[in-house]
Each structure stands twice: as C-alpha cells, then as structure tokens.
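Notebook, p. 212. Picked up where the previous page left off. The plan for this session was modest: take the two constructs that came back from the sequencing core last week, fold each one, and keep the raw output in the notebook itself so nobody has to go hunting through shared drives later. Recording the first one now, exactly as returned: residue sequence, then the structure token string.
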Amino acid sequence: RRKVDSEGRRFQDRWKVEYFFTEIENHCVCLICQETVAVYKEFNVKRHYQSRHSTYDKLTGHDRSEKLKQLEAVLIECVMKMVENICPEKKQEFANICLARNTVARRIEEISSDIKRQLTSKGVDFDFFSIACDESTDLSDTAQLLIFMRGVDDEMNVTEELLDLQSLTDQTRGKDLFVSVSSAIDDMKLPWNKVTGIITDGAPAMVGERSGLSTLICNKVIEEGGKAIKLHCIIHQQVLCAKHLKYDHVMKPVLKTINFIRSKALCHRQFKQFLLDIQAEYEDVLYHNDVRWLSRGSALQRFYSLRKEIGEFLETKGQPMRELSDPIWLADLGFLVDITKHLNVLNTSLQGKDAAVNQLYSHLKAFGTKLQLFIRQLSQTQPNTIHFSALQEIMNSFPQDNISAQTSRYAADIASLAGEFKRRFQDFAAIEKEISLFSSPFSVDPDDAPDQLQLELIELHCDSELRSRHQQLSLVNFYRQLDKRAGFKKMLSLFGSTYMCEKTFSAMNFNKNRVRTRLSDSHLRDILRIKT
C-alpha cells in the first residue's frame, strides 16, 4: 500500500480563499479555528470547512478576500504576542516570516512580471539599444543564456536591464543562441533596426565569422535596415592580456608552496598558528583560482608579504624553498607582484554597472600610456622603479647583487604586454574615432568626423556657449542640450563589457546551488530579474 508521505502532496494556494486554510511549518492550519488537518488532501480540508465553517459561504469576491486578510492578521498578531513573551529579541525576525512557502514564490513571480511590463513600456521609447550575451551551465547541467539590454530614449536616459534568461537543454551552437536571442527581442516587441551592437565573452559560438551569434545578429540587423557592431568584452580581453605574462618559473613554485600549506588540514592549522604566534601582518595565504579575475594578483601579493614567514615555516617542515634565497628569483617575484597589481587596478576600474563604452576605453588608453612610461623608466641606465614598490624593495635588500641589470628584461616584457593589448583590442580601436567624437567633440577635427556630422560639428566648435556647457555639465546632460544627437545616442547605447552577465551568473550560482538544484528555470529567471 502506498504511504501518504510518498504521495508528494502540497498545500494549494487556492485553499486560502476557498476554505480559509494556510500552511505553517508544513502543517495545514485552519485560520478560523486554528485546528490542523493531518494530510495535505483537498477532501479533508473541504470536509473540515463545510462541516464547521459553512456560514462563511455567504462571503464572495472582494468580501471573502478581505476576510482572509483579517484572519491572517489575527493569526500573525497572536504569533507576535507569543513571541513577545517568549523571545522578544527575535520579534523582527518573526514579523518577516510569510505564512506559506508558496507566498514567496507568488510574490516573486508578480514582481518579476511587473518589472518586465515596465521594461516593455520603456522599450517602446528606445531610439537605440544594444545587447550583451553570455552563456554558462548551472548545477543541473542546463545551459543558461543571459541577455542584457542597454537602451537610450530621446532624452538620453539610459536603461540597463536583464532582457531575458533563456534555458537551453540541447546544443549551444551559434544558431541555437541566435534563436533564443531572437525570441527574447521579439517577445519584448523591440525593432531590430534599432540594435546598435552586441557584446559577448568571445567564445567560438558567440563570435564565429560565419555562424557565430554576433555575426547572425548583425546580419539580421542589416536585413531590417540597421547597422550593428560586434565587440568582445573589454574585461575578458584585459584578463587574457594579463595571462600573456606567464612567468611560470615564478608562478609554479609559488602555487606549489601555497598548495603544500593549505592542502593538508594539520599543516594549514600549524601555519596559521605560526603566523599568529609571531604576529605576522596576515593570518593566511590565499588560494589561486584562475577563473577569478583578481585572484592571481591577490595570491601573489599575499605570498610576497609573507615570504619570510613562509620560508621559516617551510624550514621547520623540512621542505625549504630555495627560491626564497635567490635574489634574481625574488626580483622576478617582486616585478610580477607589481605588474599584476597594476593590472588588477585596471580590471577593477573596468567593472561596474551603467559604464559607457567611452569611459571603459579611456581607462584602457590610460593603461597603455602607463605601460609606455614603465618601459621608459625601466630602460634607463639608472632604472626608475618608483611604480614598482616590491621590485624596489628587493633591489634595496640585495644591493651587492646586480639586480638592476634585470630591469631591461622587465622593460622588454612590458613592451610585449603592450603589444598584446594593442593586438587584442582591435574591435575597440576600429571605433576609436566615434568614441573620441562622443567623449570630446570639441577636440575632434571636422575633417575626421563622419560626413553627416561635419557641418554640425563645425557649428558646435564655433558656439562658445556650448563649449562652456560642455565643461560644466556631465556628458549626457550636455548632449541633452543639442537638437541633433542621433549619433551620440548610438554610442551611449553600446555595452563595453559583459560585467552584468558575470555578476548575474554569480547570483545564479548562489540561488541555484547544490541544495536547490530543482529550482525551475522560470523561477530562476524571475529571481535574477529582480536581483538585477
């Protein structure tokens, strides 16, 4: 015979209005008499209601809903009175508890639907918009495609929101992704000829020349009479450039030592206690995770700061690290710590919501100029290491060793890194003139501007009042003063990175974790829409 517990019965939300029942701690409770029905079965609930509270049948429609609210309020008041007497310090926690687990799900669905309705109404007013796409796999092995939209209306107001989360249960080829993106755009009734660009993480399915998502999107826009550009996320490209400086002869010993300390519980406890006993600056070393953008720099910085303590601890374990006594290796470590620190500062500046493409590109250009400064300073006869504090510390610690002779090698490595930056960011370099025109219209020669903007740009240069406003107002507020601003709205609508996608994937992994793998795709979409 089948057991009741195996039938998977659940409380139905409609029982609240129909029979004045609610769910409290997995029990079906009558709101009128507070009695409990043993089994989640409609027959039992209905029988209880008809046999004891049939007088409430005269209440219908709005009156019945109001009565339900009154009964729930009475129950909550009784619970709060009890809490005040038993544990008054937790009164606020109990006040935030919902009566039924389905209530939370229903409210999330309603909020998500309302956000979507608002976005749909805003989308009607968009003059231009671009999309950012990224794909990842959740814990249930479902491919989730995030689609963000950045739209600009006639008043230069920017809206950056989650357009949709598309779940793919089969292949994730470019054409499969294109079908999902097309469905999301068509569902929101957005015109394709207003798409100005698409930015992705650079995966083959995203950027393939023939059948990649970006190519298919741009072809669709052209068919509809528009023009869109393809961009590779500026943060992803920066991370790839950072990996150009491998320095394996430094990284491998460092990671081996970190893993030796942290991989065994006893060794790890002893190391932390050792640092505590000697009152070290930090209390532990950091693991390196190649996926996390800032992990390499953080792990290296912590290792460098604790290098003396690590050397002493390894000696007590009979596992001396010979590299820590090699001045040249220590100089290489110091240089790598410093350059990754500069790269991490750049990466952090590129993160954030609502960042315009011109702002991100200006950070990139500034870093390129910094690299040229580093090259010149390290190439001098008397190297200037003012911007390389760790390297300078090592050089001061070993004055008898000719470490300064290594600086020419470091300058060559930085030159190679600068070349990698120049090679990778060709997609942004291709629109550099448009970016400059948008961010600094008064410094652009009309001859270098697009033909349709040359006359307008000349008038702009000759208007002293507008020049004064450009200096006083923010860029967006300045363009709101202009009558003709279509070209500027296109540039403002472009995404510069897929930062919002990466941030939302973190939220997805937090919500759909190993104990919540049964979270449905639709509920996951609703949660992420509210989260963003």
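Okay, moving on. Second construct, recorded in the same format:
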Amino acid sequence: MAMPNPKLKLPRKPLSYVLAKRIFRFILKVFFRRIDVLNENVVPEDGPIILVGNHANQFIDGMNLVASSNRAISFLIAQKSYERRYIGDVAKAIGAVPVLRPQDIAFKGAGKILRIEEDVENGTCKMIGDENCQFTKVDIKKGAKIRGKWEGDLLVSEAPTKDNEIMLAPLREPKASVPEGGCDYKILPKIDQKVVFDKVFKVLAKNGTIGIFPEGGSHDQGHLIPLKAGVTIMALGAASQGTPVKIVPCGLTYFHAHRFRSKAVVQYGQPFDPPKDLVELYKTDSRKACGALLEIITKKLMEVTVNTPDYKTNKLLQTVRRLYQPDKLKQLTGRDYMAYSRKFTNGFEKLQNTPQAQALIKEVEEYVNDALSCGWKDKELKLINRIEVSYKYSPLIWGYVLTHMLIVLVAFPLSLPGIVLNFPIMYLSRSKALAMQKKALAASKVKVGAYDVVASEMVKAAGVFVPIFYTVYVVVAAFVADILIDESQPDGYQLLEWIIPLSIFVLLPTFSYYSILLSDHWYFSRKKARAVFFRSNKHCKRLMKTRKTLQTKVRRFVEVHLRENTFAGPYAKGGLKGDRGGREFSREDDRGSGMGTLQEDQEEEEEVPNSGSSMGGEGGRKVYPERVKVEGVA
C-alpha cells in the first residue's frame, strides 16, 4: 500500500465537482430560508480526513456538506443510488464511492421463524424455523443478518447446518422476540467490502477527503441511531497503514426540513486522530478496537447534534428554553441556539425522573396545550412580550403593527406573479415527494414518518418540472409577442418578438427567486402583525399571565438545578454572550461560507431543532416515537 506523502498537495477539484458545488449552493439557497454554517474553519486545510455526519435528510445532507466545505469530498453512497438516473450521474460527477449494502440485496426467506432460544449460561442463541425453512440451501454465511418483526437485525454467528435452525450472536437489549404464530423474515447476506475499503484507503493516501453517514440510511427519528462500524474500519485501517487520517464530526440539524423555506444548521466539530492504542489494538483485535472507536465517534457526533427521544419532548424543552430567555432577546445566534438546545436537552435528561422536573414539564405541557386550544403558540406570546417590553408606549406598538401591515401590502402584490408562475411546479413537486414518502415509509423499519425523504424528492422533481414549465412560459411569451407585433409596425418593435422571450428566458429564474424572498417577508410580517394586533384578546391576556408565572418557575428551576453544571455562560448574570439580536454570527472562529448569513429573523419561525430531520407532520401534526401512518400506507 502506498504511503501518504506529507508534502503531497490536496487533490485538485475536478470541474464537474466545482460545477456541482455551485449548483448545490443555489438549490439550497432557494429551498432553505437560512443555513447557518458553524466552525467550518476547524476542518483541516490539508491532510487526509474522514467527514462523519448524521443522516437526517437523505441527499440534502450530502449537498450541505459539499456546499459548506472547502474540501473535495468523496462520499460513500449506496450502490442502489449510484446506479439511479440523475442521482447516479451527480454521484459520479463528485467522485462518490459506491457501496453495496446488505439491505439492498436482501431476499425473503422460505417458511416462517417460530421462536428464538437463548442459553444465557452458555452464551449461545439460536433461531428456530418451521419445516418449510431452507437455511442450508440459501447463501447464509457467518456475518449475515436476519430481519423480521422485531427491533434490529440478528447477526448469524455461524453458517447453518440444519434447514430450520440458525446459530445467532448473543442478543442485545432490547432482546428480540418472535410474534405468536411465527413471522416472515428476510436474509441480509454478508458482503465482503474489501474493494470499497481499498478505494477509501487510496483516496486517503492521496490526502483526500471521505464523507460518510455511519447511521446507514437516512431517518427522521430525531436522535442518532446506532452507527455502523464501517467508518471505524476505514479510520483504523488507514491509520494502521501509516496514513495520518483525522476524523471530523459534522452535525446536520434541520428545522422542519420537509418544508420549503425552512432552516438548517451545519456544525463541524473538532477534528481528532484515531487513538494510537486503538490503532495498535486493531492489528490484533479489530472488533474490540472498532467498537471502542465507534463509541468515541458517537460521543463526538452527539456534541454537534440535538438528540431527544421524541418530538413531543423536544417541543416542550424548546418551550422551556424560550421561557428562560431574557424578555428583550430577539433571537439567539446560530451558535448559541444549538449550544443551549443541547444544554437544556442534556440537563433535563439527567433530571427527568426528579419530582421537580416532572412537575415543571407537566405545567409547561398544560400551558402549551391551553395556548393551542385558544389558537396561540408560545413563540407568538414570546413576540408579544418582547414587543411590550421593548416598546413601552402604545403608539410605538401600533407603529410596529402598521409597519408590518405595510410590508404585507407592498410585498404581496410584487410577489404574486412569481407565486402564480411557480405554483404548478411546487404543487407537482410536492405531490411527487409525498408519493415517494409513502413508499419510503412502507419499505423502512427505522423511519418514523419518512419526512427525511421529502425535501430530496421535492428538489429532484423540481429539477424536472422547472425546465419544462419555464420552456412553456418562454414559448407562450414568443407566441403572444408574435400575435401582438405584426409586420406593419416599425423595425424596433419587430425586434421585440425576440427580445421578449429571450428576456423571460434569462430573467425568469432571478425573478422567481426574488419573488420567494418577497413572499418570506410578507408571510412573516402578516404573522407578526396578527399576533400583536390581537394581543388584547382575553385568551391572550390570560395566557400572558400564565407565561409570566411559568417564566419565574423555569428561571428558578434552572438557577437551582441546572446552572452550576450547565449554564455558566450566556445566560449567567451579566448578559447574554454573543447576543447581537440574531443579526450575525460571532465570527471569532467562523469564516463566512457564503451559505447564507444570519440576518434578522422572524420570532414566529423559531422552530424545534431536530438532528433527525423534521418530525413535525403536515399542518403542525406531531409525530411521536411510534411509526406514523401516512395516508395510503398500512
């Protein structure tokens, strides 16, 4: 194996990669209202690295890493996707490495599984099938997996010698159990990935960058699922060959990622080397070394993501965080937002079984439900509270309302033509995405509502419909110009037959983009004006009193139970560190990436961060840990 040359320059980015990166940035800028990139300067400028990210939003995850990183990333991509039209073409253009996954070639086994027998004393476990099973007649080797109606896949410890019996590796918690009467099953063959690992080692030996999502497939569970060991084999295998590889964790957090014009945060963690003792251990006991490194990578990923057991808990904790924030604070910076989301999550996780925490969460939940039943949200009440504190006099408050009403009156008519022209594209793209969501949910055991596929499918569908509809608009414009301009008119007017359609062809994308920006302004201004205008509503007044009481309780709880270990910083006495009203990043360790700078944001759109993609259903529907039923899917 060729040894890495420390003086070797970074691989030159091919033109196809540079072009793809520019296209990705444009797509992300259109789809997302804001993308905050944190700590991108910690990514080493040279040397071999492995970028490790959580997989929360299917193909959008890879696009975000390509768009935000200065390194040319060679992603590991499922061979199933690599061979698909369009997606495969893009993957080849950016130098992706295809990986054949067991789940992509899984096949249904004959017969049914009846039971699983575990001998704890001898440390053995076996799976028993009915008389129709043919374990010895199919390709089941040591390392293959069996998938059925239980949580997780069961690992085969040795090749079967009987048609109805398979020896398994010791069961993990929660232990699998077979439903009464037996169940069907699938066999996931053992795949030798030596060719893939060799390709990875060659990329790293040339000071290249490998991108991988070790959770396997994307999901929308709201927290990390167990990581696959492949990334550890790559890191330890390369290091054992003398390649000075570094691992860089990257957290991808989305705020209702399946919605158009939502928000996202890309946060890079500190690079680290595979521990030397694990590199040495890998040479003699690869399984133990890989397990230890996998725990380290999991911990590092947890530090750059927000992880909660379910959407309901996440929503409540974000409400607690808002209640704790200073009244005059408009918005946290992207960095502080992520930091305190994690701190509240981690703090309450440690205290969740204490009577004080349970009582507080119960009160917050009752307040949230009461507000929703009256047609209000906490973020709207927070806005009203901030406005009343900031603008103490009634004329100033009404000036705030009138200002946003004026924005609506001006921006809505200006954006209307763009909305009308692009409505068919949005409707068809969304319909296609929702259809694919149903298929993805039916085919997966780890997805909650398959919201992680919606954004990717919308982008892919729009990539087809946009050229079609824009071509139609240009043709229609040319046809209308031809009718309106006849040969009797001066030569200058005759040129308009060409100028009009060509102008529409060139300017329509820009016109559409600025129509979207104007739509953002009037949409959020309408919500702001409505909330403040109706602040005198009797329900609103009662809820504001309840909120004030809860604020006192939350701040007291944090001061007594959490501050000592968790909040020694921005929320401490003396002000909020890094508070600039949400206008820009604190740049002490950030370089602007051009992905979209932080600008003054609308309080109403302060969403629940979720590293497992958005778990909020359509129309605000809540999704909990159990699988949701999408219409048309059993």
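Notes on construct two before I forget. The radius of gyration is 28 Å.
Flagging for discussion at group meeting.
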